[in-house]
Amino acid sequence: MEIPIFKIFMIFGIVSGWAKTALADGKVTLLEAVALVTQLAEILGIKTELEIPTATTEPLPETHETEHAATGDIEPGNERPPPR
C-alpha cells in the first residue's frame, strides 16, 4: 500500500495533536488510544468496527505488586495470580 505524501503529513499532524493531549497527564487511556486508531483508520480509508463492552460479567482479578526499588523483588503475598 502506497501512501501519498499529503496523507503522511496528515497522519503526523494527527499523532502530534493526539500526543499533546493524551500524554499531558503521562497516561494513555483506552478511549484515547481508540480515538487515535479511529482517526488514523479514517485517513487511510480503513473501515473500523470496534465493540467495547461497557461492563464485564465477571470482575477482573486485582493484583497488587510491590517492587522493591533496590532488588526488583516482588513482596510476598502480592504475586500475580496464575493465568486462567
Explain how this protein is built.
The chain has 84 residues and is an all-alpha fold. It has a domain of 40 residues. Helix content is 39%, strand content 0%. Helix 1 runs antiparallel to helix 2. The radius of gyration is 19 Å and the shape is elongated. The N and C termini lie far apart (39 Å). The model has no long low-confidence stretch (mean pLDDT 76).
Lay out the secondary structure:
Layout: H1 5-22, H2 30-44
Mean pLDDT: 76
Residue share in helix: 25-40%
List the uncertain runs. none
* DSSP summary: helix tally: 2
Concise structural overview:
With 84 residues, this protein is mostly helical. Helix content is 39%, strand content 0%. The radius of gyration is 19 Å and the shape is elongated.
Name the features.
0% strand; 84 residues
